[in-house]
Amino acid sequence: MKAKMLLDGGTPKVLPAELKKLIEKAGIEVDESRADLGVVVGGDGKFSRYGRMEDIPLLFVGVRSKGATGSKAFLAQTTLEELPNALGRIRGGDYKVDDYRRLEVLKNGRSLGEVFTDVYLQRGGESTCIRYKVRVSGRSVDINEAAIGDGVVVTTRAGSTGYYSYPDRIEGKWMNPAGFSTVGRNSIGICHVTPTYTERAGSDLHPLRYTVPWGCRIELSLFRRADARIYGTTDRRSGVKMFLDDEVTVVPGKKVTKVISLGRRDR
Predict the structure, then answer these.
(1) Are 257 and 158 in contact (CB under 8 A)?
(2) Which residue ranges form the domains of the chain, and what is each CATH number?
């Protein structure tokens, strides 16, 4: 069995030499070009990045942090300290691989790529609230919404413990991934980010967060000029600029992300 190391290109949470030593100690060869699995060490942001880029099965490895702003790694299946035991189980065949559906994001009909966790339209640094529309169609769903706020998140099952879950944290609940992963395998989550106002056409609803069936087409657009960006499809901190006449479309992706599951017995 061969493994590929996937780390932060800037300041990794573990040195490559140290990670290589841990992997080889478990009897697994490190091979960047012919790997059977990828070992991703980091937080959920790093898991999200490699989850949209890699096609091989991925083991998400978290690094414990006591700091309030440190990595929480809710998607991690094991920790760096417990990595040798986790790799031993994998080498012995004591694991399974879960397929996570991805979403494809298009801007004016041109694909920006697929996302493993979420994509979001958000105000940039030169704007206050943005005014935008959300249209959802398909699978007996026809939703037209207008909103004023910081933006909107469209998430997969894998991303439901991320930005989509912020209302749970505001309520003061403990952030338990098993308890707050409310987006099912056959659903897509939509969540407005700190809106001052939302309105759903043809109803009295002013929604904050909800799910729609997998397979729906989601269209996002601005109805007033603003500094607005699309995040989640690129590594650029500035995201993808969105103008008044642009339309962003989110549809089911063509690929899946393969995630190695250990039943969380290592945590």
Answers:
(1) yes
(2) 2-94 (3.40.50.10330), 102-254 (2.60.200.30)
Write down the pTM of the prediction.
Answer: 0.89
Q: Which class for 166: exposed (0-12), middle (13-18), buried (19 or more C-beta within 10 A)? A: middle
Q: How many CB atoms lie within 10 A of CB 131?
A: 15
pLDDT over 60 (residue 178)? no
* Chain segment 128-177, per-residue pLDDT in tens: 899 999 999 998 899 999 999 999 999 999 998 888 988 887 766 555 55
Q: How far is CA 13 from CA 7, 57, 86, 171, 189, in A?
A: 8, 21, 18, 31, 30
59 and 88 in contact (C-beta within 8 Å)? no
pLDDT of res. 264:
52
| Exposure letters 48-57 (e unless 16+ CB within 10 A, then b) | bbbbbebebb
Q: Per the structure block, which two tokens stand in for 123?
A: 């105000």
CB 127 within 8 A of CB 254: no
Q: What is the pLDDT of residues 86-109, one digit of tens each?
A: 999 999 999 999 999 999 999 999
Helices in the chain by DSSP H: which ranges? 16-25, 44-53, 83-91, 166-170, 177-180
Give which of 29, 30, 25, 62 is closest to 46, Cα–Cα: 62
Contact 73, 62 (CB under 8 A): yes
Greatest Cα pair distance, the chain, in angstroms, is 62
Q: For the chain, what is the total number of helices (H) and then of strands (E)?
A: 5, 18
CB 189 within 8 A of CB 101: no
